[in-house]
Amino acid sequence: MPSPPLFSGRSGLVLLLCAALSGCAAVGPSYRAPASEQLSLPSQWQAALPHAGDTQRLLAWWDRFNDPALTRLLQAAEASNPSLQKASANIASARASVTTARASGQPTLSGSASASRNNTLGSAQTTTTGGLDASWEIDLFGSVRRAAESADATLQARQADWHDARVSLAAEVATDYVTYRACQLTLQASQADARSSQTTADVTRRSLQAGMTARADAALADASAASASATAISQQAECDITVKALVALTGLAEPALRQQLDSQPAQLPAPTGFLVNTMPVDLLSQRPDLVSTERALAAASAQIGVAEADRYPRLSLSGSLSGSRSAGVNTTPWSFGPSLSLPLLNGGAKRAAVDSAQAAYDLALASYQQAVRSAVQEVEQSLVRQDSAERRSADVQRSAAGYRSYANAVEAHWRAGGDSLLNLELARRNAIAAEQSLITVQRDQLLYGIALYKAVGGGWTVSTGDTP
């Protein structure tokens, strides 16, 4: 018996009707991103903006450091860091979910075949069978479409997460690198102070032996030398701890990492400034973490439609065609027809599912609003800190120079016998504190710049298209 034509009689009419119905609008809300008014975004930054340097693309911001060692560390971190690998795996999983969601709206077809041979009362027979089974659930109320929208939005969120991981990783590597360079400078100052204090202690000890110095002065000089030595040892440990952090971030072996760090002098980078000319509203598209949060909101909105569509009837088409041959006789049975599923009684479970999806959307909206406010706060605070560091830099430099000059004068006076050891130690401590303050403010200028780079999005844009 021949198989039926695809559009024959009532079955064909049913199929045409179902295809028409599948074009109906999907139930549930059609997503619209919250307007800036809903997010309480200010129209401009309230903190002072840095105006040094020329405006450049933030994407190439790290080039301003003009620091080959930092560039190599950033490249090494991006090549093998687990946070980026995890973000890439999440993208692959989200892509698979998109394929699964879209496949739910497509017809399915499966085939089967078998062959057997048996012997009954001395008569051997071969039996062969084959068949096709097809089914197609008509997307009457847009459940499949909403699920695909949710999956697409989730994929976009995971892609934004990958960019956010890159920005965060680069900022973390640069922060540790700058911290290490500042630590080196502080260590050099501590070691110089320890050597100077030990020299003073040796001179005082010889003077004591000659009967020209009081025993109390010798004890003070020895105590000062021991304290300075302990400070240098502690500072060395802090530098080593920062190296360990860079090893974990970059994946480089410690000897290789130290070789890269030692390839350049122990000094802080001196990058040019950059102009922050973006308005707060631009953060919504410039910061990858905000894009991710907004896309999660879109996915939650689509899930309301999925839950709502589950409350309505489901219509599907199914058919089967099989053929068999046994003892020279062929048979080709077939079946085709629609089936309708009506959710009649479910104890309110499906309504509760819609309410749950709506609550999940409300939670995602609140999370997005909070993320936007936190982003504006981060930028404003970074601007304030960077402006403060820049404005106090000149004063700290003048203070360090003055205290160092005074300490040198007191030391020369002490060596000539015209000043006390106590005054020398006080002058030396003030000079050391001023030198450390200068290193700290220079370090902070860089760290606040890095924080500002991250706060304004790190140069990421949706159109980069370089996700794995």
Automatic annotation (TrEMBL):
Subcellular location field: Cell membrane
Major localization class: membrane
Name by which UniProt lists this protein: NodT family efflux transporter outer membrane factor (OMF) lipoprotein
Segments of skewed composition (Polar residues): 105-129
Family annotation (InterPro entries): MdtP/NodT-like (IPR010131), OMP_efflux (IPR003423)
Signal peptide residue numbers: 1-25
Keywords, alphabetical: Lipoprotein, Membrane, Palmitate, Signal, Transmembrane, Transmembrane beta strand
Gene3D superfamilies per the UniProt record, alphabetical: Outer membrane efflux proteins (OEP)
Domain of life: Bacteria
Pfam families: OEP
